[in-house]
Amino acid sequence: MPNRQGADRVGHGFPHRAAVRASLTALYRRLSTDGVHRFPVSVPAADMEIGDDEDLHLGTQRVARALVHHLRLPDARIVASFRPMEHAATVELAAGPEYFVELNDRFRTRRRDIGAALAHEITHVLLHRLGLGFPGIRENEILTDVVTTYLGAGWLLLDAYRQDGVESQRLGYLTPEEFGYVLAKRAEVFGEDPSPWFTSAVAYEAWVRGRAEAARELRQPPLAGAGWAERRRYGRERRRGGAAAGAPYAFDGGAPAAGVSFACPVCLQRLRVPAGRSLRARCGVCGSVLECAA
Predict the structure, then answer these.
(1) SS3 73
(2) Is residue 121 within 8 Å of 2, Cβ to Cβ?
(3) Do the beta carbons of residue 98 and residue 80 sit within 8 Å?
(4) Do 100 and 81 meet the contact criterion of CB atoms below 8 Å apart?
(5) Considering the entire predicted model, what is its pTM?
């Protein structure tokens, strides 16, 4: 996991949108909806805290065990150590049952971020066991951040984002807003409100921006919850048989269009439905039933 310090190294916005969406779809395809729903509650903040009076190594092992339990990793013993290194943390992936995680020495004095670093690395172990991965290193790391967050441990990575004049830090490959976006996607499914867990003011602000982006996707045509202006634009484009550049949907079948494709707002799988009428569409990947005015 990268170790980003310095204000000039903290990116913002949604530059990894395509990879984030592909990661969510891949997670649902690999685990199924029932598998994803085995993670209804996020890892508690209390389980991730290492007090100043607690032995550092024993506390780190305790946090690692809690994350292994949360991610439902059987027979996975995490051996954690600290050393000077360029990255925030690394994990040695092998057949198990022991996995060796190395943490940057700076976490010796930043105990509140140890859980975040471990969450990303232990999710690597989960993905290794699931056989789930992408060909590129960067895409694979984005997948790890997305899965960590969607399965209930990634709020720690967002809370590790700080930019307060004293220090500037971001862990992981996603931008703060992208972490907030994935958290919001999770919140829609499980009804969680992660806002009380944030100790970092800028992390909370990023969560709010990510939540707004996720909410915007629920109000896009052909979903029935789209606003009046969006519906009017959609209708014109459907009759013309072509969507404008950057539109969240695509038409096919002439003018007026006979069909429209769009992303499921839950798992981001691409769906295709008949155009020109109201209907319910069921996603074949996550099972979501969507009200459409296509």
Answers:
(1) coil
(2) no
(3) no
(4) yes
(5) 0.93
